[in-house]
Amino acid sequence: MKQKIFTHIRMLLLFAVCFYSVSAWAQTNAISGRVTGSDSGALPGATILERGTSNGVSTNADGAFVLSVQPGATLVISSVGYTAQTITVGSQSVINVTLAAAATQLNEAIVVGYGTSTKADLTGSVVQLTSKDVANAPVQTFEQAIQGRAAGVVIESGSGKLGQGIKVRVRGTASVSGDTQPLYVVDNIPIVTDNLSSTGAPTNPIADINPNDIESITILKDAAASAIYGSRASNGVVLITTKRGKSGATRFNLGYQTGTSQATRRREFLNSKEYVELLTEALKNAGRSDVSNANRLRNYAAGVTVDGNYAVDTDWQDQVFRKGSFSQYDLNTSGGTDKTKYYLSGQYSTQEGILVGNKLQRIASRLNVDHKATDKMTLGINIGLSRTRNDRLPNDNAFSTPLQAVALAPITPVIDPRTGLTSGALDLNTGNPNNNFPFYYNPLLGVQNNAATYATFVYRTLGNVFAQYEIIPGLSFRSELGLDILNQDEDQYLARVTSRNSGPTNGFAFSAHTTSGRYITNNFLSYRKVLAELHTVEATLGTSYEERKQNYTSVEGSQFASDAYRKLGSAAVYSAGNSELTRSSLLSYFGRLNYSFASKYLLGLSARIDGSSRFGTNKQYGFFPAASLGWVVTEESFLKNQTVLSLLKPRISIGRTGNQGFSDFASLGLFTGTSGYVGIPGQRPLQVANPDLKWETTTQADAGLEMGFFDNRISAEVDVYQKLTTDLALNATVPATSGFTSQFKNVGTLENKGVELSLTTRNFVGDFSWTTTVNAARNANKLTFLQGQPILGSFVSRAQEGFPIGTFFAPEYAGVDPANGDALYYVNRANEDGTGTGVSDRSKGTTNDINAAQLVPVGDPNPRWTGGLTNTFGYKGFDLTATFIGVFGNKIFDGGAQYYSVAFNNGPDNQTRDQLNRWRKAGDITDVPKADYLSGNGSGQSSRFVKDGSYGRLRTLTLGYNLPGDFVKKGYLQSVRVFAQALNLVTFTKYKGWDPEVNTDYLSNNTTQGNINQGIDFYTAPQPRTITFGVNVGF
Amino acid sequence: MKKIVYTLATALFLAGSLTSCDKKLDIDPVNSVRDELALRTSSDVEAALVGCYTGIQNAEAYGGYIQLMSDLLADDGEVTFVGTFIPPNQINRKSMLKDNGFAQAIWVNAYNVINRTNNVLANIDKLDTPAKRARVEGEAKFIRASMYFELVRLYAKDWGDGSPASNLGVPLVLTPTRVLDAASQVRRNTVTEVYAQVIADLTDAEAKMPVNSPAASFFANKYAAATMLARVYLQQGRFADAGSAANRVISVNKYTLNPSYADEFFSGSAAGLLPNSPEDIFAIQISAQSGRNELNTFYSIDRRGDISIEDKHTDLYGPTDERGDLFTTSSGQTYSNKYDDLYGNIKLMRLAEMYLIRAEANFRNGTLLGATPLVDINRVRTRAGLAPLAVLTLPAILRERKLELAFEGFRLGDVKRNRETIADPAGVAVPWNSRRLVFPIPLREINVNPNLVQNEGYN
């Protein structure tokens, strides 16, 4: 067999060689062509060199060239900022080449706040990703596509539900009660990213942006880079630049991809036989009689006696997980003349989630136009319109959320044989719900026949107009007006069949409408001048004003004539209504000065003054300066005559940023009118004023070293940083004798410090290219002062002085007493500092009374190390990209385990299979306590449910093939690329739950606890494993 | 062209900077109102007064906790708290921890209400007419005094225990809080000072409040103030003053006993409303949309049913005592039926109490103000279906008071002023002046206010 294949290949090769050589002889020696960049249009000035000779030429303004070559010649095509390509001429007379933009080139333009710079001139810590990193990924939002791509930027999708909030942390969590997400700026306009969901689970307003419209994503990490965004920059800044048109022929690009997705993993639960065995044992141990046990099982089994012949074995995960689908259609066109350029795109994307009933659709379009009105004046408009529909699922903690079906017994049939209806359907005789069969509400009832629906529609307009005028050469003025309008409709209906869960309402509906409007004006001057060819001065000075207004109205009602009426107009009872409005404004002045001497010595200064309506009257304006220095050592003469080191650039920075991500009127003394007394209007004091309320302040120092070796075949960057956050705004406890219990005050401090590494090696260049990019980051978070009082989160999470935010404090599980099967806990010792916590002290022995055990730190949900590894291979038209991501050293609290991993000690919920290892007789050594029905043995929240959440994952794998140019041309096309890709193909973890990338949705949005609740698993949907196939056609 | 562009650019730049003065940052909230704008008109202040009523309607005040926790603390084995809440359990066992959640909640809410009343009183000049001014001032002082009276009874030693002039009471805060500063770190006033403030407020309230409250019949009037004053004097052992205050309520002939004791407490439907009756001097109003009857939550067999009534209590009722019929036994637990209306008003002040106070005061003082003690006691007995007594003793009066007012929040005050010794569930005797019968100053308060001295036994 082996030999046969070999022969085939040999014959194929022989045939190919003959074919090529014959046709080569037939060609003339003159060739022509055009060179373009992967991220731009024509590349003027690119070099085309016949390998092994000095015969070469440069491209003209259109990127075109003509060159005569020897037969059998090989061309080397190169351009600054792009990866060189080698092409065998063969029989071709026309060679069109697209050069890939190189990731680590010094002259690459880097988007910075209110301008651009180059990698060489930068003195701050910045990561820039490009369209190729986000385009066509089978995800809803671009953050998901860049997971693991940037050192120190930790991105986590808390659950596999679609369109849900995504956690992005740049260099750690820098706030306890305030916003911790970075500031997002699209084409110079900060956009609304606040969660606007009416349910407890957050949604993600970034899902309204089509990732395929993105040209570049720049993440500003240190103060030198981000301080120009002032009071909103402490969590980092993400600058998104959308694609723009290039002059030249009009191009069209059509993309289509489709595929399927499935849960990355399932948990293992007991099957019918095991369920009966273990439950019976637990019941017997609890002293229940055989007769009552048989009755119980019969009830669970829809009235059928459970004996050796009982055949029902329901895997409830099969009922709620499904093969989801992903389809996306893209069409964009760009082009223009020297005067007017445009980019126009449209996308329809639809994805069905891995859980029944979950769906996300997006229709997005964008038009970006640039027009040169005069030699000096440019005008333009960028506008993105989108409509996103998200069919959402109930929160993780709801009995009605599909994944809670796993709690049902495997002996319960999906269809009740007595009625032929889904188990738990309404009793046909009374119309009332079956209140004890199954033993919990069956979530399938809601997802069948659209009985329970929650649809969110978001209509988003994101646009800006700008004008730029060159006053004198080097000095230009730019004025921008941006608008971000978000209209959101939420419509919920719960049909009668759900009444066991939603109450006897004869249909329940909820409807909410949110309008969020924001306008921004930026006006700034930019200046650049090179003096005496040595001194380069760059300066920016400007002002910005923005105003935001958010309106919310909701109504709920019940009693519908039938489930066919689902809108509130048909409700007989209106049970609640609400209407709220909130506003804020921000007035800013900013400036930046960069100076470079002989491209060797770099100095950067920037500052912003922010005045915010959120700040107290005594602290209305904040000042946020930053300074940085860089030294390009390789520009020094003593390093000129060597080839090893192509770049050596140490840089340092220090600066101050702020965070004002808290509620709009936290500084004011307020009265509320919600104190009516049985129908008579009343009011009362609500909040005590704090005229001193101000931004949270982060002072960040950063030292970095950028290195390049062997003509940048190897490039590396190392950063160490320390972020000290002071004036943390917390709800500080105040004497209740004042009539108030808390005041929002700047009282706390915390720190983040860490190190970041990134390394890119171009292992092979040429026909076969192979590039490896690695990044890794370590961040250590510590709460240094919280007024001495812990802030409790949910389950066992808390913010406690001296520990990282979200550390789990719980009794420490000590395993099972071999003598009697009792769960044991270490008593440990009370902390002498009076903080109400304990410290580990094994000498105090163990106890079976969980209340007698001290609460000690038992796990940190913050990862120690995060990173990514991307390998890109190219050969001829093929390309293969694989990105592994890793998150290490974090702990998960499995909040659902107290129900499903406690050997029936907390009720009849089906149990995970590991519970079969329960203690059975004296002398058994196991960590699963004795099964004793409802005894609570071992089910209390303790370190027993704290698990290692480290994981490594093949996040993306993409294989693409660009069809050969001349083949494509025959179909009057410019380019054809086919590809296959996989998301989350393989996951390596010790975590036994559904997925280690987890944070339950219903706890991640709480305004006081959202930052504290981390790494909590509670019937949380796993991530999808998605595989798609697609094609991109250019014409 | 160039000129136009320059002008345009300059204009834009200026628009962005100079005109955007501080005013742009001055944004008014809409959902709520700035405190300096909340109390500008007469009706604003009246609405703030309504907010005071909402405050005492809260669960943590007369919505139920004050009455229930007083009775649990003073219980002598006549009830058992069988619920899962730990704080009431501690209170019933008379071994509270200093972080007892209910002790904290009652304190926090009471001072919240006091701040509401202080806001009203500080803006009393905003009211349109002298009549309105008098009414609003009277009602606010009535509510403030009621909260201070409850606080000083729960968180301090009894009036009769040692020297009230040196015993620590609770901090007196008499002005609205606008800022938090060093002055917010208040100290405890003495028991005498607190009682003096309470009596001053109530006396002024009684003088200023109308006979009938205008807006709705359920706001407090002159007689509610007199009733509260009677309670205060009774607690101090000032029997002449107590009897006189009670007599002022009775002699106006505005109130009459409900012919049926059961009807006073139950409308006949467990999901129903229980309106005020002619017997009610002041009641906390509850409706489906407003307030929560927490006594219903804890006592009712239809709800949590956390309070198990023991035979030691039910055995006290004579065979024909209709008040003894207000109990249901189910699955071995006996429940009181006094609070079976889900949305029942909470009868805070009933005429029967006034008869009992006048009788006790007259009896102890040997006076005959209004009526003889025997007549007053027999009025209460006859209504309950009992035979009139021929001879009266103090124990008989106190026993009548205990049964008539059972589970209405009177036991703690009575145990202390009558110097009874009770037993905790473990059978350990607890005398009337035991530190175990005084709530801890909430731990949260001690933590944030170093000027507060903790009560004995909680350090």
Automatic annotation (TrEMBL), chain B:
Similarity section: Belongs to the SusD family.
Cited Pfam families: SusD-like_3, SusD_RagB
Keyword NADP listed: no
Keyword Membrane part of the UniProt annotation: yes
Annotated protein name in UniProt: Membrane protein
Keywords associated with the record: Cell outer membrane, Membrane, Signal
Source organism: Hymenobacter frigidus
Superkingdom of the source species: Bacteria
Domain SusD-like N-terminal, chain residue ranges per copy: 88-234
CDD domains: SusD
